[in-house]
Amino acid sequence: MVHRRELKGREILLGNQGALWGNAMTWWDHETGSVWSQPLGEAILGPLTGERLELFPSTLTTWGAWQEAHPETLALDVLGWPTGFHLEDMAVVVDRGTEAMAFAILALREAGAVNEVVGGLEIAVTADPEDPNRWAVFSRRLNDGVIVELTMTGDGLRDEASGTTFDPFLGTGLSGPYGDQSLDRLPAFTAFPSDYVTFFPDGGRWPAA
Amino acid sequence: MRSRVLLVIAALAIAGIGAAVALSTDSPSRLVPADPAAVYDPVAAGEALPSGYRVLLDRDQIEPVYNPDFTSATEVEWPPDSLVIGVAGSRTAKAYPITHLNSHEMVLDSLDDDPILVSW
To answer: In chain A, what residues touch B111 (CB-CB under 8 Å)?
Structure first.
């Protein structure tokens, strides 16, 4: 729902009180600290108790229908990522403690493999173009300080410089000079982009917005 | 647009002007949220709570979007069947995807000259 943030002609700021009343959210206003009920639009605690905010006309509809009705509409810039509750819209999150980065699965599947540095560690993230559930995160460091740069090819994950190939989802060496080594798998998880920004507000994103 | 805004913020910070200055045509003035701890809290003050009032989190632990950015409809790839809250004024229309409101719950914004709060 949408309310006019105005009381007696003055603009007010509201925040999230973090409490429920009648199983609905409550707000706090930044000036008096009064607590407001969302569904009523009315202050229920504090100096402004009994004051009401005006409901503002709004529509709950599909993005397609809204765009058709309002072709010039602006869109909230969420991440520059696709959104919606679809698996392909999730992101693979690599949390290295000092730094986190989220990789949009849809773009990952197009890229096949992405080389990045997160929390000081050279990593690669791989994804299967056919299966959104199939992805992996590896360290790109091999023995003796060798760092590989990986691309997805028909023969596997390939380091052009050395000509070594690895299994794209297991990391085991397949052929080439470093084929007797394996890439170390790193822990990662999937999350919706909107949840990622909540829990990792300073986290990096690939592709960059 | 995001990078341009960040550059402007950086420039302002260097100039020591602060961020409470117009940054873009989308948001004519940036909102500066108050420190929740510095504002009166009726619950902490011991006011009688209405029945069914349940404290779950701290104020703004789920942080509202105080200064939203917008982009054109052609720049986003939201599924056509995904839900949005839409508002339309005399000059501007805006859409807020429910997926984003699910995690942030509140967006403080303006539509034309009207200050609004979008909540979910």
So the answer is: 56
Cβ contact (<8 Å) for A45 and B50? yes
User: Do residues B97 and B83 lie in contact, with contact meaning Cβ atoms separated by under 8 Å?
Assistant: yes
Report the C-alpha gap between B118 and B120 in whole angstroms.
7
The phi, psi pair for B31, rounded to 5°, reads -80, 140
Which residue blocks in chain A are alpha helix, DSSP H?
63-69, 105-111, 193-199
Nearest CB partner across the interface for A21, out of B50, B63, B72: B50
Q: How many beta-carbon pairs below 8 A join chains A and B?
A: 249
B61-109 pLDDT, tens digit each: 888 999 999 999 998 888 888 889 999 999 999 999 987 787 678 999 9
Q: Which candidate, B97, B89, B71, places its Cα nearest to that of A89?
A: B97
Distance from CA of A118 to the nearest CA of B (A): 21
Distance CA(A192)–CA(B46), nearest Å, equals 38
Contact B111, A2 (CB under 8 A): no
- Partnered with residue A16 across adjacent β-strands are A27
ipTM, two decimals, is 0.77
Separation CA A166–CA A174 (nearest Å): 5
Whole-number pLDDT of residue A31: 96
**pLDDT given at position B77:** 83
Name residue, tokens 């949005």. B84
Gap from A33 CA to chain B (nearest CA, Å): 5
Quick one: pLDDT at residue A134?
Answer: 85
Residue A36 C-beta-side C-alpha neighbours within 13 Å: 27
Chain B positions in Cβ-Cβ contact with residue A197 (cut-off 8 Å): 103
- As given in the structure block, the two tokens for residue A129 are 């173009």
Give residue A84's pLDDT band: very low, low, confident or very high (50, 70, 90): very low
C-alpha–C-alpha distance, residues B44 and A79, integer Å: 36
Which pTM value belongs to this model? 0.56
DSSP B26: S
